[in-house]
């Protein structure tokens, strides 16, 4: 597949994924329930592999997937067993078959959003090359972890307290989700990014040119567009979702309207902000064409 065909395909699935994210907030949502988990994870995974195969190459993308899979599975399993690092919770059967106590869909979800967040960190730091300098080794993992957790801040209560794909044993102050969950998320994804960054630094002598990167604005705009397509769900839910009472595992009552409006605000001023920053950063990057 040549670059033009690949990009057309990536734009198509990005737009369709954004439409799908919006539809989850409409009256059509009940008819989509059966496919929401699979589509929400399979499409981002396809995007990540196809986009990354051009930007980083298949060998690096497979290593990236392996790191994300192993680290996320290990820490999710550890937390389900002990409460560290996310807190005490368990997955229900809504996400399908499990590897141990963790649904098989969870690890690809980490990988796909980690890939998009990794690229966004490069964008906001104005780092469009492959040089394994201090910025890529240490700054990119930290910024990427923040960008990844922005998504979880916008998503977790709707998936747990509302949809009950997973259940927090003791509830939590953030619409049924505990504070420690987000600290655990940051730790987990930071480890993924830091391991990847150190691995890329060791590979640098083998790369064709350490100073070369992807200098096409379209590549970077595609990545931002997919993060935006993921973001669309949250303001849409804030705008369209009906109000009804919700109860978490600690028997605390929540308003679904209050939850969705709060998540929409969080998304707009975190994920939305990063999308704006990324678009402006790419447009102003002098070395891109």
Structure notes:
- A hairpin with a 2-residue loop joins β2 and β3.
- The chain has one domain.
- With 289 residues, it is mainly alpha-helical.
- α3 (36-55) runs antiparallel to α8 (217-231) and α5 (106-124) packs across α8.
- The protein is built from 11 helices and 6 strands.
- The chain has helices at 3-23, 29-32, 36-55, 58-82, 106-124, 134-162, 179-203, 217-231, 233-240, 256-269, 271-284; strands at 89-91, 98-99, 102-103, 166-168, 245-247, 253-255.
- The protein has a two-stranded antiparallel ribbon. Strands 2-3 form a two-stranded antiparallel sheet.
How many domains would you count in the coordinates? 1
Q: What separation lies between the terminal Cα atoms?
A: 22 Å
What structural class should be given to the helix and strand makeup?
Answer: mainly alpha
Sheet with the most strands, sense and barrel status: 2 strands, antiparallel
Counted beta strands: 6
Number of helices: 11
Shape: globular
- Give the SSE order as H and E letters: HHHHEEEHHEHHHEEHH
Strand order of the largest sheet: 1-4
Summary?
The protein has eleven helices and six strands. By secondary structure, it is mainly α. The radius of gyration is 19 Å and the shape is globular.
Describe the secondary structure blueprint for this structure.
Blueprint: H1 3-23, H2 29-32, H3 36-55, H4 58-82, E1 89-91, E2 98-99, E3 102-103, H5 106-124, H6 134-162, E4 166-168, H7 179-203, H8 217-231, H9 233-240, E5 245-247, E6 253-255, H10 256-269, H11 271-284
Antiparallel strand pairs: 1-4, 2-3, 5-6
């Amino acid at each position: 597949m040549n670059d033009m065909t690949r990009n057309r395909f990536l734009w198509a699935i990005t737009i369709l994924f954004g439409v799908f994210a919006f539809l989850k907030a409409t009256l059509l949502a009940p008819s989509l329930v059966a496919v929401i988990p699979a589509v929400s994870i399979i499409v981002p995974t396809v995007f990540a592999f196809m986009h990354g195969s051009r930007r980083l190459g298949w060998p690096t993308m497979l290593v990236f997937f392996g790191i994300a899979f192993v680290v996320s599975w290990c820490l999710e399993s550890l937390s389900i067993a002990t409460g560290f690092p996310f807190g005490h919770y368990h997955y229900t059967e809504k996400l399908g078959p499990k590897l141990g106590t963790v649904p098989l869909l969870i690890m690809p979800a980490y990988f796909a959003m980690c890939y998009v967040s990794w690229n966004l960190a490069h964008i906001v730091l104005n780092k469009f090359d492959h040089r394994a300098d201090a910025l890529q080794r240490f700054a990119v993992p930290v910024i990427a972890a923040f960008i990844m957790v922005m998504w979880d801040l916008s998503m977790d209560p709707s998936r747990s307290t509302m949809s009950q794909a997973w259940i927090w044993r003791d509830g939590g102050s953030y619409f049924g989700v505990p504070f420690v969950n987000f600290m655990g998320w940051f730790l987990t994804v930071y480890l993924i990014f830091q391991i990847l960054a150190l691995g890329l630094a060791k590979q640098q002598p083998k790369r064709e040119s350490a100073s070369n990167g992807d200098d096409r604005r379209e590549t970077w705009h595609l990545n931002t567009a997919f993060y935006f397509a993921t973001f669309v769900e949250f303001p849409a839910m804030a705008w369209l979702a009906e109000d009804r009472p919700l109860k978490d595992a600690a028997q605390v009552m929540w308003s679904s309207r209050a939850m969705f409006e709060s998540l929409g605000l969080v998304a707009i001023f975190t994920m939305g902000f990063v999308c704006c920053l990324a678009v402006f950063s790419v447009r102003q990057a002098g070395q891109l064409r």
